[in-house]
Amino acid sequence: MHRYILVFLLFVQSVCAGSFHFYLDHGYKKCFHKEISRGTLLIGRYWMEILDPDTNAYIIPRDKTDTGVLIDVEEVFDSNHRVVHQRGTASGQFTFSAIDSGDHRICLTPKSFFKKKWLDGGGSNPNSQLDSKFKNARISIDFIIGDGSIIDSKHTHSVQTLSEKIHQLNDKLIDIRREQQFIRDKEEQFRDLSERTCEHVVRWLVVQVGAILLACIYQMFKLSTFFLKQKIA
């Protein structure tokens, strides 16, 4: 009896977490069907290798940014409604939590995201140019299916840590805003003081110019009176 139970557990483990690989041409899609119940979490771990035409061997892509896979998850039972469409790197994982029970189709497409127009740029990555021309890829993948609540509970600490970091960043942002407001207030005070100083300078300048003009007019009047008296004498 224990032997049958052990065989059954090994069979379930091989179904839920079996690793395998397949070959695809660039831009072609490979799909897998999974019967997933509501609330179940699907994790797909994959890594891609591309065919090197020089050595005729599969190698890890040199460019880690623009060479990867397109990941699609569709609900077959709901008229092939696509619920996941994301761009993945050459190696990584994707997760999906089923909203409803039914047949789901998981598709992967090896693809180069390198744009041809970038070739004219002086700072383009040569690895992107090399990997963008790959014709065939080998993708290894394994699926892990489990209870979403159990698997998600393992990431509670990470979520709490991220939440604390977000709160710290918000506090720093508030401090920066306060400092900026303090600098603005100081700048406004300095501007008001500068304007008042300029007004005082201009006012005294006008008074001084007026006084000089009055003194000049008075001196001219005195001189004209003096010369008039000299002529009469």
Give me a quick take on this structure.
The protein is of the alpha+beta class. The protein has helices spanning 2-16, 126-131, 148-153, 156-232, and strands spanning 19-25, 30-36, 40-52, 57-59, 67-75, 81-88, 91-97, 102-112, 136-147.
Give a description of the structure.
The protein is α+β, with helices and mostly antiparallel strands and 233 residues long. The chain has two domains: 16-154, Jelly Rolls (Sandwich); 162-233. Helix content is 45%, strand content 33%. The chain has four helices and nine strands, in the order H-E-E-E-E-E-E-E-E-H-E-H-H. Strands 1, 3, 4, 7 and 9 form a five-stranded antiparallel sheet that branches. Strands 2-8-5-6 form a four-stranded antiparallel sheet, with no helix packed on it. A hairpin with a 5-residue loop joins strand 5 (67-75) and strand 6. The protein is elongated. Residues 1-17 and 117-123 have low confidence and may be disordered. One of its GO terms (cellular component) is membrane. The chain crosses the membrane at residues 201-221. It comes from Hyphopichia burtonii NRRL Y-1933.
Strand runs, count: 9
Give the distance, in angstroms, between the N- and C-terminal Cα atoms. 152 Å
List the secondary-structure elements in sequence, H or E: HEEEEEEEEHEHH
The CATH fourth-level homologous superfamily of the largest domain:
GOLD domain
Radius of gyration, in Å, reads 40 Å
Instruction: Give the assembly state of these chains.
Output: single chain
Structural class, from secondary structure content?
A: alpha+beta
Q: Which residues sit in consecutive blocks of at least 5 with pLDDT less than 50?
A: 1-17, 117-123
Q: Into how many domains do the coordinates divide?
A: 2
The coarse silhouette is: elongated
What fraction strand? 25-35%
Averaged pLDDT: 79
Helix content: 40-55%
> How many strands, which pairing sense, and closed or not: the largest β-sheet?
5 strands, antiparallel
- Report the top-level CATH class of the largest domain: Mainly Beta
How many helices does DSSP assign?
4
CATH architecture of the largest domain: Sandwich
In CATH, the topology of the largest domain is named Jelly Rolls
Protein name: GOLD domain-containing protein
Keywords: Membrane, Signal, Transmembrane, Transmembrane helix
Pfam families: EMP24_GP25L
Transmembrane segments: 201-221
